[in-house]
């Protein structure tokens, strides 16, 4: 693929944008490359775009070319402190879809507060990698239906949203679960990323909420990470999700910046 877009702008900022592949664009000012554009499909099927330029005036021609070539809706993520990039996407017609707070969690119980949290009476925590796949998938479907019926899965991180094929538990070894008898009633997903573990999802069945299940799952996970030599983990929380905010801040999590997700329909 080598689709071209007419030169945009005038004088020193006139650029010509070419689509090099299904996912990449570049912009030339004369014979000099002045910027790049990329699109990345997420596991849930959404398309996320990004633009990298050396001069602010080159942003709009690249964004306009990408918008002309791609179907909508399109998404992008901007660091909350990057006001210039946010303004550029807003000028391209993008609007705020969600705001995320990043949290850093220390795993050492001496630093996080009161120490390990005991599960509610009658519950046990099944460590990550030991959960039975069938009951885990059944619980995942239940909590997804319950969340969708209330706040909606639009508040969940992209990598835990339903995939186009409908498979929502890609790697069962990432999940610790809370078990009552032969039923799974809560789950926590943690990705063991090279630099720092990421807590991507904590969910509890509606009839077991407000009993300390999520706190017990989080406490267990942090303790397990601590014993594996991990000093910290991080999580991203939709700022509108008061329950998740209270959960992480109650575990001693410290704010560590944030991001804004934009969408253009």
UniProtKB/TrEMBL annotation:
Cited SUPFAM superfamilies: Acyl-CoA N-acyltransferases (Nat)
Domain annotation N-acetyltransferase: ranges: 123-265
Signal peptide: none
Alphabetized GO MF terms: acyltransferase activity
EC number annotated for this UniProt entry: 2.3.1.-
Any Pfam family the entry gives: Acetyltransf_1
Keyword annotations: Acyltransferase, Transferase
Protein name stated in the entry: GNAT family N-acetyltransferase
Organism the protein comes from: Kitasatospora cinereorecta
């Amino acid at each position: 693929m080598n689709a071209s877009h007419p030169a945009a702008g005038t004088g020193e900022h006139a650029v010509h944008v070419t689509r090099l592949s299904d996912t990449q664009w570049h912009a030339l000012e004369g014979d000099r490359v002045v910027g790049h554009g990329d699109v990345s499909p997420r596991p849930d099927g959404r398309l996320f775009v990004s633009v990298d330029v050396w001069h602010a005036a080159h942003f709009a021609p690249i964004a306009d070319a990408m918008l002309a070539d791609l179907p909508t809706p399109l998404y992008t993520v901007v660091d909350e402190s990057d006001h210039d990039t946010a303004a550029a996407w807003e000028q391209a017609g993008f609007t705020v879809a969600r705001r995320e707070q990043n949290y850093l969690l220390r795993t050492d119980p001496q630093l996080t507060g009161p120490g390990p949290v005991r599960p509610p009476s009658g519950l046990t925590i099944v460590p990550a990698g030991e959960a039975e796949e069938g009951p885990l998938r059944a619980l995942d479907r239940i909590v997804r239906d319950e969340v969708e019926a209330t706040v909606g899965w639009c508040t969940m991180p992209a990598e835990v949203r339903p995939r186009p094929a409908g498979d929502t538990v890609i790697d069962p070894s990432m999940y610790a679960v809370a078990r009552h008898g032969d039923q799974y009633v809560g789950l926590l997903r943690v990705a063991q990323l090279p630099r720092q573990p990421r807590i991507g999802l904590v969910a509890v069945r509606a009839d077991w909420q407000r009993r300390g299940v999520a706190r017990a799952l989080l406490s267990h996970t942090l303790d397990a990470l601590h014993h594996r030599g991990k000093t910290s983990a991080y999580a991203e929380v939709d700022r509108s999700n008061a329950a998740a905010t209270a959960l992480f801040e109650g575990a001693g999590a410290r704010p560590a910046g944030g991001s804004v997700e934009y969408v253009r329909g």
